[in-house]
Each structure stands twice: as structure tokens, then as C-alpha cells.
Specification:
Layout lengths: L4 H4 L15 H12 L2 H10 L25 E7 L7 E4 L1 H7 L2 E8 L2 E6 L8 E4 L11 H9 L7 E2 L2 E2 L1 E3 L5 H15 L4 E9 L7 H18 L4 E6 L11 E6 L4 E4 L5 E3 L12 H20 L10 H4 L11 H8 L5 H42 L4 H49 L8 H104 L6 H10 L11 H30 L5 H19 L2 H8 L14
Antiparallel strand pairs: 1-9, 2-4, 2-5, 3-4, 6-7, 8-10, 9-11, 10-11, 12-13
Helix pairs in contact: 2-3, 5-6, 7-8, 11-12, 12-13, 13-15, 13-16, 14-15
Pfam families: MobA_MobL
Protein name: MobA/MobL protein domain-containing protein
Organism: Thalassospira profundimaris
């Protein structure tokens, strides 16, 4: 399960170089076979316990909902050795002569058991560092300064080395500084703080950007008055090509300067902020802000988040630190207990996330189906629009499934090609010894074993690859079918809308014509009534006394019947004529205004415009080759002639 299937559920790390271990076993195998006797090297390779079949121990970095991702940032302290903590190994006679005490449970790089000494190292003995106190070494601070500045490790660009700090400009003086710190602090005291942090690998940031990030991080220590020095390291040959990282060393006692004898002058008091509980968290947060600003300036779409998985809302247990010893064994292909636990925890989390995602997709499909049923049941007018959405959802679902299966097929094909190449190299080297009289028998025996072993692997991977390829072919056919149905629904919806637009345009034109007819009849009726009232007004004016204007009659009518005093004309007759002419005049004025407005708006015939749009839809259907499918759906409407008759 750990050999192949871990690659299928990796969240994005398979698309580029893998972080973590590379298969050093494969490199060592090919290198040994090409540069020395193949048969004996094959035996030595098997005896070295380097297993090329054990996969790389990979871990993933999940991304939070806000797009943030964790990063490597480690801060450790280095203590000076104390008098009661020094151990040595050597001749038992020399140890007995010096009166040293033997401790059988002390572990060191040479084995178990060592002698403890207090003052000077006795003759014939060699000082060792214990595993439990590996950070307690004499001169370890200065040695680590030289280690981070070793040749071919520091990034170098445009004639500038990515090595900055405020301790001193020369490497030897910086080593002298740490020796002075060790003498100044005494035994058992913390003398050096070491920061190891991941750096961006993007070309858009480049060496100058990484050096600027280191300088900004060191500026934080400058503000605190602390001596520091940092370098940017290149990725090692056997590691991931993205493994750019920085080393920064600092001391928590401020450096006041250097005296005339080239000795550092320290402050009396240490900076207590370094010992605070929030110092590491604040420094990590500041570093994330510095890197995120560099991402933003360079246009890199990444975001580093200094928070924990729990604070980021990621349901994943924290990863266990394996240590250099375990990582070294895993890189050689030797499975360790802690490495196995880390791999099992990673796989358990990946399978859990995969299962959650699968359940989430099933619920989403069920919700879409439920919405479709409700929409079709409650509103028949939206049936075509809902069909388009369902067809699109099915198309995207099939595309997603086919994409995942395609990645699976590529992974199996990669494994298959890798095994074939490895078998070819081993087989070609062993075949050179088949004709040798001394090694022929052994070579043939190893060749048969090799062929049987790889034959079983080829068979298993071949079956898995064929099964994955059949599933991929099936998924691709489903994608084509879903895409075809989606396009049919889209064109069908456009055609239905075009037909509806034509029907609305025809109805609108008929309504306009009927409205014009009604307006003309109404206008004639009003003119006829106006003429009748004008005749009545002439009759009434003849009955009025000479010199009486009609305006006086209109004012008296407006005052009401109670103030009417004329005897020659009754109030009813006068009010009927005055009010009738007034109302008819207003109606005629409003009617003429509307008629003038309609005449001023010269628009294109909506029926012609709607039919033109339908022609474009039918042409698009013919070009897409979906005429037959849509014709079956709507009863052959697409096969009708595309002739447009202008309305009379």
C-alpha cells in the first residue's frame, strides 16, 4: 500500500519535484554498476541494506481555506559543555591510571559506554559527545559558524555572496567571536541560537530576493541589539532542487564592539526578550510577513501562514519530527519504526480527507438532483434552464473524474517505465559476465532471479495499468457524452428563446396596429363632439346681449350656479358647452401628443430583428453538427427553410 497508492492521493506534490527523501538507493545502484565489477557490486549493494523498492517517505502540506500554507522555521539553542558532562573513550589502562569512572549506559557515536572526566583530558583518551547531550560540544559554536559558511554551500550571484550579519566582516573573526562567547558564558550555558528556515525557490524572487529576506530577518535582531550572522544555502545535490534555506546564528547578549586586541566586548546584561515565551512565535510571524511581501512584489501566488494546523482550520495532526538519523536511514531505503509511523499517519490523514471529499461530492450531487426535481415540479417554464445546469454539472463531474483517473494512469505508466529501465540497466551489466567461464554460472543464476523478480513486478503493474487505462477510456466516453448533451441543451435553449422572441414581436406588432386603429377612431369621435359643442356655443352667443364676450360667460360658469344671474341663457346650457369644450380639448391635446411621440421614434421592425437572431442560432446549430439531435428533440424544427418573410 505504501509503495504505489500513496502517490494517487497526494494533494498536489506529485506535479513537481518531491520534498523530502530521494531514492539514494537507485543512484548508488546505477553508479556502482557503471563504475565497477557488476556482479560483486550487486552483492555488495544487497549487503548494504539499501532497498530501492522502498518508496520515499513523503509528507504533504495542506492549504487552508484562506490559501495559507505552513513552512519550515526552526529555532534551537546550543549550550556549552560543563565540567560534569564531559566523557571520553580510549585505553582502559589509561582511564584506570587517571582514576576515571566508567558509565556503561552512556551512548555516543562510537557505541555504548564511556569514561567521565572533570578537568583536563587524560593522555591516551579521546573526548566524545553523547547522544543525549549531542549539542554539548567543546567549540561547537565556532565549528557550526564554519560549517554554514563552507565552500559551495552559500548562494552566490552577481559577484555577491548571500552571507550577511553584524558580528564581523571576516569568517575567522566570527569564529573567534563564538569562542569568546563560550569562554564568557562558562559551562552549561546557552551560547548560540540557531535559526533554520525555508526560503522561496521561485525564479521570480531569485538570489537577490532571498538575500533581502535574510537581511530583513536580521534587521529584527539588529533592533534588539543582538549580534547575528546568516547565510543562504543552495539545495544539496541529493536533495530537492527547491530546498533553498537560510541559517542564522545569534547570541542573546548584545555586542558592544571589538577592542584593540581583536576581542569582542559584551554587554553586562542579556536581552530578556529572547527568553520570553512569545519570542519564537513572534519571530516566526514576522518572518512569514517578510516572505509574503516578497511573494506579493514578485507576483508569486503563494501565502505562508505561521499558525498551527488547528488555528488554520485544518483537521490534521501535527507531523512528528523524525531527526537526522531516521531521515538518513529512510533516504537509504531502510524502513524505520518512526518513519513507518509517520508514513502511516500521513496515509491515514490522506484517506480520511479523500473519504470526506467523496462524501461531500455525493451530498452535492444529491442536492443538485433535489433542486432539479423541485424546480421541474414547481415551475415548468424553467425546465430548459434547469436542464442546462444539470448537463453542465454532469459534464464537470465527468471531467473531474476523468482527470483524476488520467493522473492515476500516468503514475502507473511512470512506475512501469522506471522498472523497465532499472531492469534493463541491471540486465545489460550482468550479461557481460555470461560468457565468462569463472562468473558465468553465478551471473546466470543472478540473471534468472532478477528476471523472475522483475517479471512479477511487471505483471502486477501491467494489470493495474490496464485496469486504470480501461477506466480512463470509459471516463473519456462519458465526458464526450456529457459534453454533447450539454451543447444540445444550450442550443435548444437558444432556439426556444428565439422562437419565443418571434412570437412576442408578432404580438407586439399586432397590438401596435390595433392601438393605432383605436387611436384614429377616438380622434375622429372627439373632433365630431368638438364640432357639435362649437355649434351650440354659436347658438348661445347669439342669445347673449350685444357686447358680451364669451370669456365672461366662462368665468361665471366657473363660479357656480349660485352666482348665476343671466336670464337670457340658463346655467345648465352654458355649463354644458363650456365644460364639454374644455374636456374635449384636453383629450385631443393628450392624444395628439402621444401620436407625435410614436411618430418620432423610428425603430426597426421587432419581428425582423427576432427572425434575424433565430437565423444566427440555426446557423450555429448547423455548424456544430447537432442538427439531427435537436431536430429529434423539437420535432424537426431545425430542418425548416431559413426564409424570413417581412411583415406587410
Amino acid at each position: 500500500m505504501r509503495i504505489f497508492f500513496d502517490d494517487l492521493l497526494d494533494g498536489g506534490e506529485d506535479t513537481g519535484p518531491k520534498l523530502g527523501r530521494v531514492t539514494m538507493a537507485e543512484e548508488a545502484l546505477i553508479k556502482r554498476l557503471l563504475h565497477s565489477d557488476p556482479l560483486w557490486d550487486f552483492k555488495r549493494f544487497a549487503a548494504s541494506r539499501r532497498n530501492p523498492l522502498v518508496p520515499a517517505l513523503k509528507t504533504s502540506r495542506p492549504i487552508s481555506a484562506s490559501g495559507g500554507q505552513t513552512f519550515v522555521f526552526s529555532l534551537k539553542g546550543w549550550q556549552s559543555v560543563g565540567a560534569s558532562q564531559r566523557y571520553c573513550v580510549g585505553q582502559p589502562a589509561a582511564a584506570q591510571k587517571a582514576g576515571l569512572t566508567y558509565h556503561p549506559n552512556i551512548r555516543h557515536p562510537g557505541g555504548i559506554g564511556a569514561f567521565r572526566f572533570d578537568e583536563s583530558l587524560p593522555a591516551g583518551m579521546r573526548e566524545v559527545s553523547t547522544f543525549n547531550g549531542a549539542r554539548l560540544r567543546v567549540g561547537g559554536a565556532a565549528a557550526f559558524q564554519a560549517y554554514i559558511e563552507r565552500d559551495d554551500a552559500v548562494e552566490f550571484s552577481a559577484g555577491i555572496e548571500s552571507s550577511v550579519g553584524n558580528i564581523h566582516g571576516e569568517t575567522e573573526f566570527r569564529k573567534m567571536f563564538w569562542d569568546a562567547v563560550e569562554r564568557r558564558e562558562g559551562g552549561g550555558k546557552r551560547i548560540q541560537h540557531r535559526v533554520i528556515a525555508e526560503l522561496p525557490y521561485e525564479e521570480a524572487i531569485g538570489p537577490e530576493g532571498r538575500r533581502d529576506i535574510l537581511s530583513q530577518l536580521g534587521a529584527i535582531l539588529d533592533d534588539m541589539g543582538l549580534p547575528w550572522h546568516g547565510v543562504v544555502h543552495l539545495p544539496e545535490k541529493q536533495s530537492d532542487p527547491r530546498n533553498y534555506h537560510l541559517h542564522l546564528l545569534f547570541h542573546d547578549r548584545p555586542l558592544l564592539g571589538w577592542d584593540s586586541w581583536d576581542q569582542p566586548i559584551f554587554a553586562r546584561m542579556k536581552n530578556q526578550k529572547v527568553r520570553g515565551q512569545s519570542f519564537i512565535k513572534d519571530l516566526r510571524t514576522s518572518y512569514a510577513k517578510i516572505v509574503n511581501k516578497a511573494f506579493e512584489r514578485s507576483g508569486v501566488k503563494r501565502l505562508w501562514d505561521p499558525r498551527t494546523y488547528l488555528e488554520m482550520g485544518i483537521d490534521k495532526p501535527p507531523q512528528q519530527h523524525l531527526g537526522s538519523a531516521v531521515v538518513g536511514l529512510e533516504r537509504r531505503g531502510i524502513v524505520t519504526a518512526r518513519g513507518k509511523q509517520a508514513a502511516e499517519a500521513e496515509m491515514a490523514w490522506r484517506y480520511r480527507e479523500f473519504e470526506i471529499e467523496r462524501i461531500r461530492k455525493r451530498l452535492a450531487v444529491a442536492e443538485r438532483l433535489d433542486r432539479r426535481i423541485v424546480t421541474v415540479r414547481d415551475n415548468e417554464n424553467k425546465a430548459s434552464t434547469t436542464a442546462i445546469r444539470i448537463a453542465q454539472a454532469r459534464y464537470l463531474e465527468t471531467v473531474t473524474r476523468a482527470t483524476k483517473q488520467y493522473v492515476t494512469v500516468l503514475d502507473w505508466q511512470h512506475q512501469q517505465k522506471w522498472l523497465h529501465e532499472r531492469h534493463r540497466v541491471l540486465r545489460s551489466r550482468l550479461e557481460l559476465l555470461l560468457e565468462d567461464s569463472e562468473c558465468g554460472t553465478s551471473a546466470r543464476r543472478y540473471t534468472r532471479k532478477l528476471d523472475r523478480f522483475y517479471g512479477r513486478l511487471f505483471g502486477n503493474i501491467g494489470v493495474a495499468t490496464q485496469y486504470a487505462q480501461r477506466r480512463l477510456d470509459k471516463d473519456r466516453k462519458q465526458v464526450e457524452t456529457a459534453q454533447h448533451n450539454w451543447l444540445v441543451e444550450v442550443h435548444l435553449e437558444k432556439l426556444i428563446r428565439a422562437n419565443g422572441a418571434i412570437e412576442r414581436a408578432v404580438s407586439e406588432m399586432a397590438w401596435k396596429k390595433s392601438r393605432e386603429t383605436r387611436t384614429g377612431k377616438e380622434y375622429d369621435t372627439l373632433l365630431e363632439r368638438q364640432r357639435s359643442f362649437l355649434k351650440k356655443r354659436v347658438i348661445l352667443r347669439n342669445r347673449l346681449p350685444d357686447g358680451t364676450a364669451w370669456d365672461e360667460v366662462e368665468r361665471e360658469v366657473n363660479r357656480g350656479p349660485k352666482s348665476w344671474e343671466r336670464m337670457d341663457v340658463s346655467w345648465e346650457e352654458a355649463s354644458e358647452v363650456v365644460l364639454g369644450l374644455r374636456n374635449i380639448g384636453r383629450k385631443l391635446e393628450r392624444l395628439v401628443r402621444n401620436m407625435t411621440k410614436d411618430e418620432g421614434a423610428v425603430d426597426e421592425n421587432p419581428v425582423i430583428q427576432a427572425r434575424r437572431e433565430k437565423v444566427q442560432v440555426l446557423r450555429a446549430i448547423r455548424e456544430s453538427g447537432l442538427t439531427e439531435d435537436i431536430s429529434r428533440r423539437i420535432g424537426g424544427i431545425v430542418r425548416r427553410k431559413l426564409e424570413i418573410k417581412r411583415p406587410r
